Amino acid sequence: MSILFYSCSSVQTHPEAHIVEVDSYARNLAAEDDRFDNYFENYLQRGNFFERLKNIKLVAQSLYGVLPEQGDARKRLVGQFIDDVQKQVVVLARMDGSADDPYSYWIPSESLPKFKEKIDRIGKVVQSGRVMEKLGIYLSASKVLNKPSATEDFYLHLIAKALSEIDLQFKDVSVAVYSVEDRETNYREAQFAYAQDLAIKARMNLKRVFSKEQKQIVERIDQLLLKIQSEDSTASVKTMLKSGDWAFTKTNLANLNLQKSTDVDGINDEFERTISTKFGFEMIQYLYENIL
Amino acid sequence: MKILLLFFTLIFSIFSEAQEIKPLVLIGQMPGRYFAGTDAHAYVFGYVEIQNRVIQKIGQLKAEDLQSFQKENQNKKIIQLKRAGQSTYDVIYPGLIDLHKHTKQNNLPIWGEAEGQFANRFEWRDWPNYKFAVSGNMNPWVDYARAVECATYRWSELQVMVLGTTYLQGPSSCVSNFSIQRVEDADSYISQKSSVQAPTDLVIPEDMQFVWTSLRPLIQTGKSYEQALTQTIKKYCPTIDVTAANINSPEMLKIFKDQDKLVSLCQKEDLPTKFIRYIYWIHPTIAGRKNYFLNKKNPPSAIIAHLAEGRRDDEYNQKEYEIVKLLGLDMPQMNFVHGVGIPQKDYPELAKKDIGLIWSPFSNLILYSQTLDVGAAFKAGVRLAIGSDWVPTGTKSVLEEVKVARNYIIKDVDGEKLQQVLSSETNKFEKIDEELFKMMTENPAKMIGHSEVVKSTDLKTNPSGYSETAIGTLSPGAMGSVIIASYQDVNPYTNLVKFTTEKDINLVVIDGRPIYGNHTYLDQLGLASQYEILPVDSDDYSSLGANANTEMQMPTGKTPEYKYEYLIKLVNSFASKVFKKTDRCQFTEEKAMVYHSSVEADEDLKAFKAKTNINLDRVTDITRILAINIMTQNRNKIDPVEGKPKFSLKYFPALYTCNDTYHSKRMSDFIKIGTDDVFQSNRKYRDNIIQKQNLGRGPKELARKYSN
Fold first, then answer.
1. Same domain for A224 and A192
2. Domain membership flag for residue A1
3. Under an 8 A CB cutoff, do B285 and A258 touch?
């Protein structure tokens, strides 16, 4: 799989690193190019799969931490990815042998307890990462959103490479354990999870992007987003895409301007509202049009 | 038929009369400036009569005529503004105007880590410690349903109301029919003008690089912004039928806003950096501002935007006004908040173009150890207003901000002859106080285009008799929003600027409706039992933080519905909790807020009230929900991933500064006349960390992007 929203440029020290209180763990990550390889080899390539997932989560959290508080569409995607990883880490932690798996370099082995279920859980994280990446590429293609900074790029690259490594190892797993269908199911579930999360975020800001006089528009769009919020059927999605409500929402969000925010965060707040609604809906459309 | 018509007309007129609200007549002292031929620095005893939202009459009175005046006006609601035990009448002032407020974060404590160390606003906005200390404590906010949003904005209004502000700028929603007026709301005035626009950011460093690098060279050859942008678009997107004349038109903006079409119409390679982003997103906002100013059908009021916030010597800050000029937005009725970095040489130009500056010295000095060159700006004739910014690094209201401004002028640490200049070379404090008074009243009114009165004969449309009203003044045709303060000094401006604090604001009237003040005044106005006694205290609310984790755990659901239910559970879990009152203010007379009834007209708030018994028209309930939410649910407290426990809130700040010991101490210690103070030690601190920690690399990097 392609590994980046953008190709990874050379990693630079964050311009604000001298005053930025990032965990020393994360700051070291971003310091130099060669640390990328070191970190990848030490924490993301080798070791117990369960520990690796936890490390992937830490990288994603570091990425989340450096993304702007508001106004960055990628932040919400990374947030959803963290949720997805966390969900699987919690389930895996309850399974025998996850934390103290003796394999230093995890080789898929059907002798592992609950092997099929573990593979499936890890597979869900990999597919969540794929959806995140595809949405990132979609956002970049729009040309109206900022590119990731070098630091963000660094973390994205690490996550993508770690997931790619796991995916590669899955090739050694027999089809009986993890089939193409399993993989597709996990991908589809991840698509729904992202769409639902985007719908929730859009609903949070919906009233803030329309005026009081546009109450009826808000209510109609909210109803559609409410459906998306709980949708998990491909057939329903296909119907929904053809509905009048969908066309109505698309039309009303298409030309959304930046809002005149007087918040202390100013332009970031303006972008936040627009990204939540307009781009949130666009990303949902993209996910739905490409639903498996 | 005619008889029937006559009957209905009679019934209608009787009904209308019954519904008509009696004129309000306030009798007290006023600054002499509102009476022709009178010493502006003296007090005049007289009256103000308000009806149909507007001041209809203002006049002088002699003590011996008072009885006959009352007799002649017995059909009106008259109040003599003389409190029991006082020998002098209170003073009537126009309601104060604050053109700079961020209304979302004012229930937070002061931000203690701001010690004057920053170069510009982007430096601290990007600092993670700021995010933890401010937004980390604000969250959850919108997520937690509209009730919290409403309470937050209402709190900001209350905070300034008790300090005499009647017009507040800020991003408030949910404040209609509650307490004071919002500057940006068209219905805050009787006026035909478009409403005031107040976007925080006008110049966006990330996105103005295109203007700087691609358009600036063309503009420097004599082209306008529109011509330069048209030429650039034609170069890269030749099939777009754009001209300098239509580039700001709705039709052309529609093309620019069609993201896919725009990309398809422009060449794929070698576009200037952020070209598409600029055309798609930024230009429509610039065009929107211009169209606002040029709209002949609905004349503009004003635009208020932040500009050049930070240090005077910050190189990037010094460029922001130049960028505004490149955009062609240096237009009359444009007003800049802060403007500290605008080069002094540009001040005469600002004055000539009728561009005002909104000065927030406390916030500037706390964040950057520098503020506007106020003496030079004043001397150049730039119109100046005071703005209080926000509580984390500013003051609660302009009445507090003006005290910092006064001390700054008097102390004049940089030897800029501020006393001399601001007193128009007289060196009299009362002249300085008069100028500072104007910065809270007449000046901001002029800056937002609501200083001139136009009479109307069409009483059906304008029952007040005016089609344009003024604010910030006491005169016929001015909006009936006034404040009443105690008499404490022989000079009316010094009285307000130096001596008046929240204990001395005895009445606040909005559009002729008394909404807050000493309960005896409200009783006299026939409002007994229609108000809520204040103040509400903070000490017990602050203890909520320590016990937060034992009360409720972090919500697991994401949806708005889930979070709404969670908020209800949270609030109800404290239903039996009695918060003890510990009042340090000890006002000689209790203050009260007149009941509002906005909740009943709002379905969301009504439903919330039914489920929690929280009435967001009551100050006690607003305080209660804010304290419970912010002390127990802030991200530092409950989020194991993003939270930073050491930044969790330590206390919930009280509504009144006299009950808020941290804020009170920060105010009193900041600039002290004749002795060392926090401001000076902050400057030393900044010098040290600049040397030792190399602070300021971010701003330098930003400046590099905008080098010549």
1. yes
2. no
3. yes
Contact B263 A200 (CB under 8 A): no
SS3 (DSSP) at B593: strand
| Residue A18 included in any domain | no
DSSP B352-404: HTT-EEEE-HHHHHHHHS----HHHHHHTT--EEE--B-TTTS-SSHHHHHHH
Residue A45 at interface with chain B, using a CB cutoff of 8 Å: no
Determine whether the interchain pair A262/B641 forms a contact, defined as Cβ–Cβ distance below 8 Å. Answer: no
Provide the residue range defining the domain that includes A212. 187-289
From A52, A43, A110, A112, select the one nearest A85 (Cα to Cα): A52
Alpha carbons B145 and A17: distance in angstroms, whole number: 36
Tokens of A207: 């009233």
In the predicted model, is pLDDT for residue A18 greater than 50?
Answer: no
The complex's ipTM?
0.82
Number of domains within chain A: 2
Instruction: Provide the 10 A C-beta neighbour count for residue B589.
Output: 15
Residue A139 belongs to some domain of the structure: yes
Nearest to B648 by CA among B662, B628, B665, B630: B630
- Written as six digits, the tokens of B480 are 């009936």
pTM: 0.91
A125 plus A270 within the same structural domain = no
Cα separations in angstroms, B34 against B477, B497, B577 = 13, 18, 51
- Residues of chain A with Cβ-Cβ distance to B701 below 8 Å are 15
3-state secondary structure of A270: helix
Q: Assess whether A166 and A142 both reside in one domain.
A: yes
User: CA-CA distance, B168 to B389, in Å (whole number)?
Assistant: 11
Minimal Cα–Cα distance from B554 to chain A, Å? Answer: 15
Q: Which residue has the higher pLDDT, B94 or A90?
A: B94
Please tell me what DSSP assigns to residue B117: -
CA nearest to B365, candidates B330, B401, B396, B398: B401
Alpha carbon distance A227, A25 (integer Å): 41
Which of A256-260, B386-390, B427-431, B460-464 shows the lowest per-residue confidence on average (mean pLDDT)?
A256-260
Residue B56 · residue B76 · CB < 8 Å: no
A212 lies in the same domain as A246: yes
Does residue A4 form part of some domain?
A: no
- The tens digit of pLDDT for each residue in B99-152 reads 999 999 999 999 999 999 999 999 998 888 998 999 888 866 656 678 998 999
Decide which of A177, A196, A217 is a domain's last residue: A177
Q: CA B302, CA B315: separation in Å to the nearest integer?
A: 28
Same domain as A198, residue A142: no
How far apart CA B691 and CA B703 sit, in angstroms, is 19
Q: What is the 3-state secondary structure (H, E, C) of B120-156?
A: EHHHHHCCHHHHHHHHHHHCCCHHHHHHHHHHHHHHH
Region A257-280: what's the mean pLDDT?
82
Least confident span in A107-111, B237-241, B482-486: A107-111
The DSSP result for B206-254, as a single string, is TTTHHIIIIIHHHHTTT--HHHHHHHHHHHH-TTS---TTTTTSHHHHH
Do A67 and A211 lie in one domain? The reply is no
Q: Are B147 and B567 in contact (CB under 8 A)?
A: yes
The pLDDT of residue B551: 52
Shortest distance, CA A138 to any CA of chain B (angstroms):
12
**Quick check: A77 and A191 in contact, CB under 8 A?**
no
For chain B positions 332-391, those within 8 Å of chain A (CB to CB) are 390
Q: Is the same domain home to A156 and A266? A: no
Compute the CA torsion angle B140, B146, B152, B157 (nearest 10 deg): 160
Please give, rounded to a whole number of angstroms, the shortest distance from the CA of B280 to a CA of chain A: 7
Report CB contact under 8 Å: A144, B280: yes
> Any idea where the domains of chain B sit in the sequence?
98-132+163-202+302-447, 209-294
Coil, strand or helix: which one is B565? helix
CATH number for the segment(s) B98-132+163-202+302-447: 3.20.20.140
A164 and A205 part of one domain: no
